[in-house]
Amino acid sequence: MAAQKMEFQAEVKQLMQLMIHSLYSNKEIVLRELISNASDAADKLRFEALANSALYENDSNLKITIGFDKAKRTVTISDNGIGMSRDEVIANIGTIAKSGTKEFFNALTGDEAKDANLIGQFGVGFYSAFIIADKVTLTTRRAGSAEAVKWQSAGEGDYTIDAVKKESRGTEITLHLRKDEDEFLNDWQLKSIIRKYSDHITLPIMMQKSEWKEGADNPDGTKAGGEMVLTDEFEAVNKASALWARSKNDITADEYNEFYKHVSHDYQAPLAYTHSRVEGKQEYISLLYIPSKAPFDLYDRERRHGIKLYVKRVFIMEDAEKLMPQYLRFVRGVIDSADLPLNISREILQDSRDVDAIKNGSVKKVLSLLEDMAKDKPDDYAKFWDEFGRVLKEGPGEDFANKDKIASLLRFASTRLDTASQSISLKDYVEKMQPEQTAIYYITADSFAAAQHSPHLEIFRKKNIEVLLLSDKVDEWLLGSLTEFEGKKLQSIAKGDLDLGALETETEKEIQKKIEEDAKSLIERVKSTLGDAVKEVRVTHRLTDSPACLVAGEHDLSGNMARILKAAGQNAPESKPILELNPTHKLVKRLENEAEEVKFNDLAHLVFDQALLAEGGQLNDPASFVRRMNSLLV
Ligand code: ADP
Predict the structure, then answer these.
(1) Which residue is closest in CA terms to ligand 1's atom 5?
(2) What residue ranges define each of the domains in the chain, with the CATH number in brackets?
(3) What phi-psi label fits residue 496: left (phi over 0), alpha (psi between -120 and 50 degrees) or beta?
(4) For 504, which DSSP code?
(5) What whole-number distance in Å separates Cα of residue 118 and Cα of residue 573?
(6) Rounded-to-integer distance, Cα 448 and Cα 305, Å
(7) What is the pLDDT of residues 481-490, one digit of tens each?
(8) What is the distance in A from the centroid of ligand 1 to the CA of 574?
(9) Minimal-distance CA residue to ligand 1 atom 11
(10) pLDDT at position 560 over 70
(11) 304 CA distance to ligand 1 centroid (A)?
(12) Using CA atoms, how far apart are residues 85 and 78, in angstroms rounded to an integer?
């Protein structure tokens, strides 16, 4: 039967082109990626063979072999891992099944440096082969199956697939090198790349041993130079021991970094890591990393990758959600248990107390790693916060036991610096509070600008009281579970009656009282004009420069929260806002002096609509707003 010709998925074509162009200066990673895949294939076989040892086909000596052929200008990487069936080859090598693929392609900018970064986050994988090869041949036979397939492509839109015979189980990939890639046809060069990028791979990576062959005798009896030649013997090029099982002192920073790239499929170095061996009731080793960049699918529910679970060095599963809570889903690494059963399934994992203990211990490690980073490497912490802060803010709601620890890791924007950058910790806020201040004040809005310019801030700015400016969607959820810090209540400045307590002087309080007395009839009039649109109308304590603002009742949803719920298609309980008026403002004075009923009505509605717009809300009846505004302007 002739080879069948098939088209790559459009995204695959695009990805290959991008990779060839933007990762050209990183061609050494090709071997790393292919070796990494081979190593995963061995892990999968070892795991499947736990239940069915026949899969080993009497060859349980798992390894990767790398060779090259100078005459044919090829480099070959072969493994005796799990291999692939025909369908698997088509699914894995012809399409990208990763969730978030569409978002990834949308995020591409055309700027090569930026896109190269993105590709790193996407995971370069098998297709990187085309960086150095203009033709790739892959033959593979799945463990336990008699049928093998040969896949071949020049990386230009299509590939062929063909049934073949293959004696040995596993996958063999032959790279037909592009012109000018002869550096890979060199024994010494290949070995040094493997040592540099793949030393941590637990499988032996075998290459032919080389030896020095003396030249022939010269007539005068001296030797005529010699050369390195390959022998028939093979040797392991890498250390081939599980990196995480080695002693910390024996592992270099480079080795830690390369291992990270292997487990995370990331292409950049991590920001930090924590490596520990836990003894006692549960014995396990954990090596956990904080990436330096958020993956493109951080918010994708179906995203993969995460923690790899091993039991006594045997790979069990990737993506073990049970080992890290959602709010730490950016953590990458391995956990290797000495006690869990080797045949542990996802179901058992789900309700195992032992696993809970490992998870709790690992979460503590990550949180202390972050604490140390915040203390000792504030610049790194700022980078971390930019990438993952919004995810960490899910923590207090998800992890009650560690709520305080997480709270002290949070960072916010505030009126102190008045910039969007989130750098103020709650501890920092509390330390700089005014002596009479008892609460931590915040405002939420759907954009930083809306928070920063909110009229609610006027009195706080005037009195120099710091207010946290919260504009991430997750902030509302965070505040639902984080209601105090170090005994100080977190208080919205846009909710309930504002009581500044001792922050206000007696004189100020008296003036306020007088204003309220004088405004009584105005308040009544506005209330009867606006009717059902408001819950209440009252004199404000918060405004100095604006005529009015809206406030939510103490126990009502904030306007911002109600809008978020609505946008998410959820039913927000209907709660009407409280309108607060500033009787010292010229516009409110004008309202007060307006005798004509129609004009009073228009003006009152305008003041209300303005207040609604200022907090980012939507007008119920924009046409009437425009009409009233125009009649006022004319
Ligand atoms: P990733 O490794 O990120 O999944 P790749 O593009 O490198 O992406 O590989 C896609 C898939 O192809 C792998 O997930 C795996 O299922 C399969 N694969 C690649 N190389 C091998 C191999 N040497 N042996 C078996 N399967 C492989």
Answers:
(1) 125
(2) 4-214+224-240 (3.30.565.10), 244-387 (3.30.230.80), 411-493 (3.40.50.11260), 506-633 (1.20.120.790)
(3) left
(4) S
(5) 41
(6) 32
(7) 999 999 999 9
(8) 52
(9) 92
(10) yes
(11) 14
(12) 16
- The one-letter code for the residue type at 404 is D
Residue 102 buriedness (CB in 10 A; 0-12 / 13-18 / 19+): exposed
pLDDT at 291 (0 to 100): 95
Give the closest residue (by CA) to ligand 1 atom 18: 37
CA quadruple 40, 43, 49, 54: dihedral sign:
positive
User: Which amino acid, one-letter code, is at 291?
Assistant: P
**Ligand 1 atom closest to Cα of 38?**
23
d(CA 233, ligand 1 centre) in Å: 29
Count helices and strands in the chain by DSSP H and E runs: 22, 22
The runs of H, that is alpha helices, within 226-345 are: 253-264
Cβ–Cβ < 8 Å for 628, 606: yes
d(CA 561, CA 147) in angstroms, rounded, equals: 58
Q: How far apart are CA 441 and CA 429, in angstroms?
A: 10
- Average pLDDT over every residue of 328-339: 94
Q: At what angle do helices 112-122 and 10-22 cross, to 10 degrees?
A: 120
Cα distance between residue 548 and residue 591, in whole Å: 12
Report the relative pairing of strands 307-311 and 332-337 from DSSP bridges.
parallel
| CA 528 / ligand 1 centre spacing (Å) | 70
CB atoms within 10 A of CB 391: 17
Secondary structure (3-state) at 274: strand
Pocket test for ligand 1, best of 37, 86, 166 (most atoms within 8 A of CB): 37
The residue behind tokens 């958020």 is: 294
Is the CA virtual torsion 109, 115, 117, 121 positive or negative?
Answer: positive
Residue 120 Cβ inside 6 Å of ligand 1? The answer reads: no
Cβ of 16 less than 6 Å from ligand 1: no
- For ligand 1, say whether the CB of 49 is within 6 Å of any of its atoms: no
Q: What is the pLDDT of residues 380-439, one digit of tens each?
A: 999 999 999 999 999 999 999 999 999 999 999 999 999 999 999 999 999 999 998 999
Q: Which atom of ligand 1 is nearest to the CA of 127?
A: 6
- CA dist list (Å): 144 to 57, 140, 150, 344: 7, 12, 17, 22
Is the separation of the CB atoms in 161 and 89 below 8 Å?
yes
Give the gyration radius of the chain's Cα atoms.
33
CB 245 within 8 A of CB 283: no
Dihedrals φ, ψ of 393, to 5°? -65, -15
**Mean pLDDT to the nearest integer, 309-331:** 86
- The C-alpha atoms of residue 542 and residue 528 are separated, in whole angstroms, by 23
Residue nearest to atom 12 of ligand 1 (CA): 92
Q: How far apart are the C-alpha atoms of 81 and 45, rounded to whole Å?
A: 6
Q: What is the DSSP-derived secondary structure letter of residue 495?
A: B
